[in-house]
Amino acid sequence: MNIEYIFYFLSALTIICATMVVVSKHPIRSVLFLVATFFCISAHYILLNAQFLALVNIVVYAGAIMVLFLFVIMFLNLNDQMEHNKSPMFWLAAIVSAGSIFLMVVSAIGTTQLSIPEGNTENYTLGLVENIGMKLYTDYLFPMEICSVLFLVAMIGAVLLSRKENKMISNSQIF
């Protein structure tokens, strides 16, 4: 199967999912469509041979941030409080905003020139996780170790702060 067909299929699926994020009236469905959009974008990264970016996109955006969005939506209980503003000024602002964005996209497409890169395009190992890891742990070993120590100190501090608050609550309950 030709890779162009896979690219066009993924692009269409990404556009459909992104449109459903905006069109969906139910906030939880909107978040789930956004997760699907992130997975489609990660598939594009894999097609570009950037596996590290694909994994980071899935773990950080589709995993952590979307779970946070979902918790906030469930915590706020937006389903009961959703009011749809259907005033003429709302629709006028929406049409003006959409038209402005459409004109910017058309302008960007009109001024962009696509060119084939010169040189060695056969380097398929550029975005592999193994090569990025080797670069990080050879040339940038000291900054990586400093970051790991900072993360360890932050985790220990968060655990100690949460334990201290729990002790204070339990002591106040005793008296």
Description of the structure:
The structure is a single chain. This protein is mostly helical. Helix content is 80%, strand content 0%. The protein has helices at 3-23, 27-47, 51-76, 78-81, 88-111, 129-138, 141-174. α1 (3-23) runs antiparallel to α2 and α2 (27-47) runs antiparallel to α3 (51-76). The radius of gyration is 23 Å and the shape is extended. The model has no long low-confidence stretch (mean pLDDT 80).
Give structural attributes:
7 helices, 175 residues, mainly alpha, extended
End-to-end span in angstroms? Answer: 73 Å
What is the CATH superfamily of the domain at 1-79? NADH-ubiquinone/plastoquinone oxidoreductase chain 6, subunit NuoJ
Shape: extended
The largest sheet, given as strand count, sense and whether it forms a barrel, is:
none
Give the DSSP E fraction (strand runs of 2 or more residues): under 5%
Query: Total helix count?
Result: 7
Order of helix and strand elements from N to C terminus: HHHHHHH
User: Quaternary state, please?
Assistant: single chain
Find the CATH topology of the domain at 1-79. Four Helix Bundle (Hemerythrin (Met), subunit A)
In the CATH hierarchy, the architecture of the domain at 1-79 is Up-down Bundle
Low-confidence stretches are: none
| Helix/strand structural class | mainly alpha
Return Rg in Å.
23 Å
CATH class of the domain at 1-79: Mainly Alpha
Question: Would you report the number of β strands?
Answer: 0
Give the overall average pLDDT: 80
